[in-house]
From TrEMBL:
<feature type="domain" description="THUMP">
    <location>
        <begin position="143"/>
        <end position="259"/>
    </location>
</feature>
<dbReference type="Pfam" id="PF02926">
    <property type="entry name" value="THUMP"/>
</dbReference>
<dbReference type="GO" id="GO:0160118">
    <property type="term" value="F:tRNA (guanine(7)-N2)-methyltransferase activity"/>
</dbReference>
<dbReference type="GO" id="GO:0043527">
    <property type="term" value="C:tRNA methyltransferase complex"/>
</dbReference>
<dbReference type="InterPro" id="IPR000241">
    <property type="entry name" value="RlmKL-like_Mtase"/>
</dbReference>
<dbReference type="InterPro" id="IPR029063">
    <property type="entry name" value="SAM-dependent_MTases_sf"/>
</dbReference>
<keyword id="KW-0808">Transferase</keyword>
<dbReference type="GO" id="GO:0005730">
    <property type="term" value="C:nucleolus"/>
</dbReference>
<dbReference type="GO" id="GO:0030488">
    <property type="term" value="P:tRNA methylation"/>
</dbReference>
<keyword id="KW-0694">RNA-binding</keyword>
<comment type="similarity">
    <text>Belongs to the methyltransferase superfamily.</text>
</comment>
<keyword id="KW-0489">Methyltransferase</keyword>
<keyword id="KW-0819">tRNA processing</keyword>
<protein>
    <submittedName>
        <fullName>THUMP domain containing 3</fullName>
    </submittedName>
</protein>
<dbReference type="InterPro" id="IPR004114">
    <property type="entry name" value="THUMP_dom"/>
</dbReference>
<dbReference type="GO" id="GO:0160117">
    <property type="term" value="F:tRNA (guanine(6)-N2)-methyltransferase activity"/>
</dbReference>
<keyword id="KW-0963">Cytoplasm</keyword>
Length: 476
């Protein structure tokens, strides 16, 4: 059973007939009213890959998608019945249901007036449908968590290299009084059945733009206070049930309710390295290359294996090779593959036949692959920051591109290469025009670094080894 099918079944199993505050769902008719809700979903995605994410939404959900002028966000309309499929999208990091969008919000001139408007705004918003969606989503997540609890071995506090915001923005969270810690889950769930519990919440303000007379902290404080008064909820920074989002980008304001507690890009990796790549970014790079059935896809500098693992789970009809010269990296990649297989076996309840992927230790400049046998190369090249050095890149990049051109199929081969050392890469690529043609460049922000993904196409010209140019022939 596919992830989407399983998730859909889980969602449809959710008991929607609970008493919860003012939201009452009755058994009138074959389907409850909540199941027919049409809502707008917002999603954060790796910056630069907004179009890739929009294409995935159209392909898998059949929904039209709007790319926000605030980089790294997309919006699309769905029926709540499709909520489970939304969680299975491979290109999105975080999800939220939109309460209200103001495309051209008119800020008052003084800080006091603006903050007063934020206070009044809380009571004017259409909260009802988004909160119904939040409730359905919460029940769906509880069921999913119970099934996965047996295999929870990822440290949720690990922050990888690519965890930082993609653009410079202020992020502030309303901090409320500390509340008593949660009691035992069984006591809590039994209590919920008889008495709807007092909801705890927090407000997070993401603000980007220069022409604001207020800080994100002030906006979160005043708007959050008004939300608290309106709903009679309790503010709690850590053990919150509802996270209300106040996204401000220049004159655009979007109020939403978070549907994810942890970024969806943390789905495959359990053994992290110094520069672990987000799974969502890995998906975007692979999708740029449009993998076809039976393609051989290679990541010659795989690190922890994020790219080939993402490829093997999404494009299982291709064959994926993860390689690296560092034995520790190869071990991490192999362990991540093993963990993924274990999860798959537990989920399916049967022995898995494995994934179409291998991990190999090799030299990037002398790959143990035959000439012209690889269809796609996707890799995260060393930036010269945490891995390698800028000086070493001047020799490494030309050698890498030359060897990649050797193993890649002339005419049809393609490559998606990520690097922050753009000057060095551009210089190296300029000397490879006979074998590589640049098709597209995607500008991305990674951990505060301005990087680029270069999409290359292999020219029809056959590879000629440097030694052959001197009259010698080296068999491959």
């Amino acid at each position: 059973m596919s992830d989407i099918q399983e998730a859909t079944n889980q969602l449809l199993d959710v008991n929607l007939h609970e008493n919860w505050s003012s939201i009452q769902v009755t058994e009138s008719g074959p389907r409850s009213e909540s199941e027919h809700l049409q809502v707008t979903i917002g999603a954060t995605v790796p910056t630069g890959f907004e179009q890739t994410a929009a294409d995935e939404v159209r392909e898998k959900l059949g929904s039209s998608c709007k790319i926000s002028k605030d980089r790294g966000k997309i919006y699309f309309d769905i029926s709540v019945e499709s909520l489970a499929q939304v969680h299975c999208l491979r290109s999105v990091d975080n999800l939220f249901v939109v309460v209200k969008e103001f495309k051209d919000y008119q800020f008052k001139e003084t800080k006091e007036e603006v903050l007063k408007d934020f206070e009044e705004l809380a009571g004017k918003l259409p909260w009802s449908d988004p909160l119904k969606v939040w409730k359905i989503n919460t029940n769906f997540k509880k069921k999913k968590t119970k099934r996965k609890k047996i295999n929870q071995n990822t440290d949720s506090h690990i922050l990888d290299y690519y965890e930082n915001p993609a653009i410079k923005e202020e992020i502030s969270t309303l901090v409320g009084d500390d509340l008593a810690s949660y009691k035992d889950e069984k006591d809590e769930s039994s209590k919920e059945e008889t008495h709807p519990k007092m909801l705890k919440f927090r407000v997070t303000c993401n603000r980007a733009g220069e022409k604001h007379c207020f800080s994100s902290n002030e906006a979160a404080r005043d708007f959050g206070g008004a939300v608290q008064d309106y709903f009679k909820w309790k503010a709690d920074m850590t053990n919150f049930d509802v996270e209300v989002l106040l996204n401000i980008h220049d004159s655009e304001i979007v109020v939403g309710i978070a549907l994810t507690e942890e970024s969806l890009h943390r789905r495959n990796i359990t053994h992290f390295g110094p520069t672990t790549l987000r799974s969502t970014l890995a998906y975007g790079m692979l999708r740029l290359c449009a993998p076809q059935p039976t393609d051989i896809i290679v990541d010659p500098m795989c690190g922890t294996g994020a790219i080939p693992i993402e490829g093997a789970t999404e494009w299982s009809n291709c064959y994926h090779i993860a390689g690296d010269n560092n034995p520790l990296a190869v071990d991490r990649a192999a362990n991540n593959i093993s963990s993924l297989l274990t999860k798959s076996q537990i989920k399916e309840g049967e022995v898995s036949w494995g994934l179409p992927i291998d991990a190999v230790q090799w030299d990037i400049c002398n790959l143990p692959l035959r000439t012209g046998t690889v269809d796609i190369i996707v890799t995260d090249m060393p930036f010269g920051k945490r891995m390698g050095s800028k000086k070493r890149n001047w020799n490494l990049y030309p050698a890498c591109l030359r060897e990649m051109s050797r193993v890649c199929r002339p005419g049809t081969g393609r490559a998606a290469l990520l690097t922050q050392d753009k000057k060095c890469f551009t210089k190296a690529l300029s000397g490879m025009g006979h074998v590589w043609r640049k098709v597209h460049t995607v500008w991305v922000n990674i951990g505060g670094l301005h990087a680029a993904v270069y999409l290359l196409k292999r020219t029809p010209q056959a590879f000629v080894h440097p030694s052959e140019q001197d009259g010698e022939r080296t068999p491959w």
